[in-house]
Specification:
- There is one protein chain.
- The chain is of the alpha/beta class and 286 residues long.
- The protein folds into two domains: 247 residues, Amidase signature (AS) domain (Amidase signature (AS) enzymes, Alpha-Beta Complex); 36 residues, no CATH class.
- Helices cover 32% and strands 10% of the residues.
- It is built from eight helices and six strands.
- Strands 1-3-2-4-6-5 form a six-stranded mixed sheet, with helices on both faces.
- Strand 2, helix 4 and strand 3 form a beta-alpha-beta unit.
- Helix 2 packs antiparallel against helix 3.
- The chain is globular.
- The relative contact order is 0.13.
Length: 286
């Protein structure tokens, strides 16, 4: 269960191949997913074909993409031309999109290896993945528990090591909440930073596509790959994309963290509230 950044480095330095990495993750997926049930579909042949292209590209001495050879899981409300897009609904059980979502296209352009589409609450309307029309995904840390939702399949896939990174979508917490429940890193990008073109809408004024990873650096790498202006999306912001990965090492002195007091003023156990306040005080940047 290697992190995405290390996988990419090992592939670029030829310590391993993209094909070997894909085979390893696909093997783990086949062994573990019958219990976790994170995936609605797995496209083994397409994944291995893409991995082979990455290896051939490197063999020719060509520059590899930002996600060179890294396996990625994709939430099944993002359109993919080579796999079903069901949105966790029987209504779309046999639907095949005629195009890739912009974020999926960018994954391919950056040489990612898409291993499959992940489970979700039907049309992303839920917070536990129990509302999928197909089956409930499980939290790999405890199979009696849910992984959260609606991006529960993507969160579970990363937590179980079936993919080092994954895409989800967040309207009112559908990345952040399952990331918290599965011990992974996930966040909702600023609205307009990532294209929504090809994302089946839930609430268009709030929906955003975002990353899951096993580390902050992995989530930043995936976010770097999918961000940027898209003329197909009228709400996409035409601004340069910062170097998210590079900024992780910058000096944090001078930064300020704001925490709404309303989150902790009522309804919390006194001991928990004290612990939260102490953690906030320790995290203040000077």
């Amino acid at each position: 269960m290697t992190d995405a950044v290390s996988i990419r480095q090992d592939i670029l330095t030829r310590k391993t191949t993209a094909t070997q990495v894909a085979e390893r993750f696909l093997s783990r997926l086949a062994a573990i997913d019958p219990k976790v049930r994170a995936f609605l579909s797995v496209n083994k042949d397409a994944a291995l074909a893409q991995a082979k292209k990455v290896d051939e590209k490197l063999a020719r001495g060509e520059k590899a993409g930002l996600l060179a050879g890294i396996p990625v899981a994709v939430k099944d409300n993002l359109c993919t031309i080579d796999a079903p897009t069901t949105c966790g609904s029987k209504i779309l059980e046999n639907y095949r999109a005629p195009y890739d979502a912009t974020v999926v296209r960018r994954l391919r352009e950056e040489d990612a290896v898409i291993v499959g589409k992940t489970n979700l609450d039907e049309f992303a309307m839920g917070s536990s993945t129990e509302n999928s029309a197909f089956f409930t995904s499980r939290n790999p840390w405890n199979l009696q528990c849910v992984p959260g939702g609606s991006s529960g399949g993507s969160a579970a896939a990363v937590a179980a090591g079936m993919a080092p990174i994954a895409l989800g979508s967040d309207t009112g917490g559908s990345i952040r909440q399952p990331a918290a429940l599965t011990g992974t890193v996930g966040f909702k990008p600023t609205y307009g930073r990532v294209s929504r073109y090809g994302l089946v809408a839930y609430g268009s004024s709030l929906d955003q596509v975002g990353p899951f990873g096993r580390s902050v650096r992995d989530a930043a790498l995936l976010s770097q790959a999918i961000s940027g202006h898209d003329p197909h999306d009228s709400t996409s912001v035409n601004q340069p994309v910062p170097d998210f990965v590079g900024q992780l090492d910058r000096d944090t002195r001078g930064l300020r963290l704001g925490v709404p007091k309303e989150y902790f003023s009522a309804g919390l156990d006194a001991e928990i509230r004290t612990s939260v306040e102490e953690a906030i005080a320790k995290s203040r940047c000077r």
